[in-house]
Amino acid sequence: MANLKELKTRISSVKSTQKITSAMKMVAASRLKRAQEAAEAARPYAERMERMIASVMESQQSIQSAPKLLAGNSSDETYLFVIITSDRGLCGGFNSSIVREVRNRIRDLLSAGKTVKFLCVGRKGRDQLKSEFAASIVKTYEGIGRSGVKFSEAEDLTSDLIEMFEADEFDICTVVYNKFVSVITQVVTSQQIIPVDLVGLEQVSEEDEGLSTKEKPSAIYEYEPSEQEILTELLPSNLKIQVFRALLESSASEHGARMSAMDNATRNAGEMIDDLTLTFNRSRQARITSELIEIISGAEAL
Amino acid sequence: MTNKLIFELVSPSALLASEEVDMVVVPGEDGDFGVLPGHAPLLSNVRPGTVDIYNDGFVSKSIFVEGGFAEANDERCTLLATRARELAEISPEDASARLSAARDQIVEDDEKSKAAAARELALAEALNYALETRSSNRSI
Questions:
Q1: Helix (H) or strand (E) holding B67
Q2: I need a surface site. Which of A145, A260, A274, B33 has the fewest CB within 10 A?
Q3: What is the interface size between A and B, counted as CB pairs within 8 Å?
Q4: Chain A contacts of B119, Cβ < 8 Å?
Q5: pTM of the entire predicted model
Q6: What is the set of domains in chain A, with CATH numbers?
Q7: A155: exposed, middle or buried (C-beta count within 10 Å: 0-12, 13-18, 19+)?
């Protein structure tokens, strides 16, 4: 039987751990609320942007001179992944599920003889991928979304992307992030953003209450000032908004994941404290009993 | 009544308006255009300027947008704005301060950030112009 002093220190150390985890849970809950609101506020814009792009795509299909950002540069040798993870840990499977997904995709691509590059958002993802694919990591962004995700952060990331694309450093770009469904569910999502993936777009719009599928534009659009000029503005904006949305979703997911992880930890700590207290009381009582027996048998012997 | 048009104004951070209106006037890149119900499908760039919402023959709301895209079809007009604020909420002092700041910026800056500074200047000028024309309208 463990000695009483040892048990006492264990109990108090578990108690202080529980205090920390429950405080972290509370912090995550309040951040989650803000992040979730931001993510939901950005959805209408992204949805309408997708609808616009889809209608442009439809009228574009006949035209061969579609811009590269829309149609791709007709090669698929180099893949760029934008991996959105968090800077901090203690958020359950949030980062490792992203890394697992990415790792599988990369192994497939590498065995098919393609080249793979990464942009890592968040330190945790980079740390986990560094051991295996250190050479492929192009750049790491840290501190994004520390005080709420800002649109300017998405803009910076996107301008890097466009620069790289124009320098022919990659052919296909995919964003991998955790999509926020609820506090306990986050879905790992890969979204191809360069070239624009029409199939993916349709899936997304069907999910969104079929709002956009019902209103498929039947007529061909007029463009003002010209199709080319609109597209050169619209496509980078679309990229920015898709990246922005991914960042927002990921930040909401991070706080959700951390909240449920900390909730679990708090509950486990509680169970542990109960167990330890029980053992503590038992051994205390056992000691008292054995002391009594000693006293009584001592008295009887006299 | 089918004689109404659904107007939606969205910015990256919020859905700012979604309402039935008689007409909207959008500052397109090649000039302002009005959208009435039954408009032909159109996609246009939007320059910084004022969006006027008309109801019952009057401007019921004026919103300043800092560029974006507009999509019109026969029943709705969607405006994706990079940023938007109601004109009545913007104070002329802020606007003129922004204009002078933009003017200083464009002199100081090197070649690289010149494009951004020029954009900011155009934006500030459009904002001031929007405020001036609105106040002169009021006084009549």
A1: none
A2: A274
A3: 80
A4: none
A5: 0.81
A6: 4-24+261-296 (1.10.287.80), 33-210+219-257 (3.40.1380.10)
A7: middle
